[in-house]
Design brief:
alpha+beta; NADH Oxidase; 2 domains; signal; four-stranded antiparallel sheet
C-alpha cells in the first residue's frame, strides 16, 4: 500500500492510532516479511528454468493478481498457463490486462535466462486462443538452450528495483523530453510508443484518467472487485500475497480499531472511503507526463507483445530515476467506461489501433516491493 494513502488515512485515526499502537504492541509493528521473501530468493535456484522464473514472478501485473502457473514436468522446457482463479472479471472482462501481465512475466523470464547464457525459444498460444476469454490452453511454451551468443540485456539490472509507483509525484520537478526519447528506444516494432511531457497534454490526460478512476470507484461491481482483493495487515498479506496490500503499523492500527475494514471502504459516507478517494486522485492529478503503448490489432499475441514492451518501459524509467504507474482504468472494457474508453482512443490512437497501456511518469519517493507468492506456489502439480 502506498505512502500517499497512508498519509491520507492517518488523518482518520489521529491520536487513536497512537493509542492502538501502544496497546496492540507486537501486532502493529509486524511487516509481511514472508510475502516479500520471493524478492530475496530471486536467482537462488540451480535449475536455470526456476532461476529465470524466480525473477519473472516479480513482473508487474494487474491488481497484483500474479496470474501465472508453470508446468515444469518436461526437462529443459516449461509451459505457461493463466491461473483462471486470478482473473478480474469486472474490470477486465476480456482478460486483456491479465494477458498483458503474462507478457510482462515472459519478458522478465527471457532477460533472466539471457543473463545466464540461455536462449529461450517461445511459442505463443501453441494450442490456439480465444479473443474473448482465457481458458485452460497454454499461453506459451518455452524451451531453454545454452547459447554462447546470448548477451545480457542491460535492462535486467533494474529488475530488482523496478516498481509500479503509486505515490503522488513531485509537481515541482518536470520530466525532460529527452527521457521519452530514451524510453522509446527500448520498445520493439510490435507496438507504437507514445508519450508527452507537454503541459497541455498533461492537464488533459490528468483529467481523463481522474474521470476514469472515478467511474471505476463509483461503479459498484468494479469497485467491489478491488475491495474484495484488499489484504489488510501482515497476517492477511502473508496468507494471501496477491491483490492490494495494506500493511505496516498504520494499517494494523486502523484495522484493529475498526476504522479501516472492507466494510468502511465500501461505505461511501465513511471518512475512510473519502480519504481513500482523495489519496488515489492525488496520483492521477500529480502526473508529470504520460507514456502509452498502442498495437495495430488487439489479438492475444498483440497483448503479450504489449506486456513484454511495457515491462521494458518500466525498467527504462527505473534506470532514469523516474516513477511509473499504470493508469489502466480508462482502457477497461465494461459498459460504464465506454465513453472514456472511446475518448482516450481518439486522443492517443487517432489513426486506429488499441491503446494497450497508459501510465503516468514523474519523480516520486522510493517504495517497497509488492508481495509475491513464492515460486513453488506457482508450479503446477502434475
Amino acid at each position: 500500500m502506498n505512502i500517499s494513502r497512508r498519509k491520507s488515512l492517518a488523518l482518520i485515526g489521529g491520536g487513536i492510532i497512537t493509542a492502538a499502537a501502544a496497546s496492540a504492541g507486537y501486532s502493529v509493528t509486524r511487516f509481511p516479511n514472508q510475502a516479500i521473501a520471493p524478492w530475496v530468493l530471486a536467482g537462488t535456484y540451480e535449475d536455470p528454468r526456476k532461476k529465470a522464473l524466480s525473477f519473472a514472478l516479480l513482473a508487474p501485473n494487474p491488481h497484483n493478481r500474479q496470474p501465472w502457473i508453470v508446468d515444469l514436468s518436461a526437462d529443459g522446457e516449461f509451459s505457461l498457463y493463466a491461473d483462471l482463479d486470478k482473473l478480474l472479471p469486472e474490470t477486465d472482462p476480456l482478460n486483456r490486462q491479465i494477458t498483458i501481465g503474462l507478457g510482462c512475466f515472459l519478458e522478465v523470464m527471457r532477460m533472466a535466462a539471457a543473463q545466464d547464457g540461455y536462449r529461450v525459444d517461445l511459442t505463443l498460444f501453441p494450442e490456439g486462443q480465444d479473443e474473448t476469454h482465457l481458458d485452460t490452453r497454454p499461453i506459451a511454451h518455452a524451451t531453454f538452450a545454452k547459447d554462447p551468443t546470448q548477451t545480457p540485456d542491460p535492462l535486467f539490472q533494474y529488475v530488482m528495483s523496478r516498481r509500479s509507483n503509486k505515490e503522488p509525484f513531485d509537481t515541482s520537478r518536470s520530466v525532460a523530453p529527452s527521457a521519452l526519447e530514451h524510453v522509446s528506444d527500448v520498445v520493439d516494432a510490435s507496438v507504437r510508443f507514445g508519450g508527452s511531457v507537454d503541459a497541455q497534454d498533461i492537464a488533459e490526460l490528468r483529467e481523463l484518467t481522474h474521470t476514469a478512476l472515478q467511474i471505476e470507484v463509483e461503479t459498484p461491481n468494479t469497485y467491489q472487485e478491488s475491495v474484495d482483493l484488499f489484504r489488510i495487515g501482515h497476517r492477511e498479506v502473508n496468507a494471501n500475497p496477491d491483490g492490494i496490500d495494506f500493511s505496516g503499523p498504520l494499517f494494523e492500527s486502523l484495522h484493529l480499531t475498526g476504522m479501516f475494514t472492507r466494510e468502511t471502504a465500501t461505505d461511501t459516507s465513511s471518512t475512510a472511503y473519502k480519504a481513500g478517494l482523495d489519496a488515489v486522485f492525488a496520483n492521477t492529478d500529480t502526473a508529470m507526463g504520460h507514456i502509452w503503448l498502442v498495437t495495430e490489432a488487439n489479438t492475444r499475441v498483440d497483448q503479450i507483445r504489449a506486456g513484454q514492451n511495457w515491462v521494458r518501459v518500466n525498467l527504462a524509467t527505473t534506470a532514469l530515476g523516474l516513477g511509473l504507474q499504470p493508469l489502466s482504468q480508462v482502457l477497461q472494457e465494461y459498459p460504464e467506461m465506454d465513453s472514456a474508453h472511446h475518448t482516450i482512443h481518439n486522443r492517443l490512437a487517432p489513426t486506429g489501433g488499441t491503446v494497450q497501456m497508459l501510465g503516468r511518469i514523474g519523480y516520486g519517493p522510493q517504495v517497497a516491493p509488492s508481495p509475491r507468492w513464492p515460486l513453488e506456489a506457482k508450479i503446477a502439480q502434475t
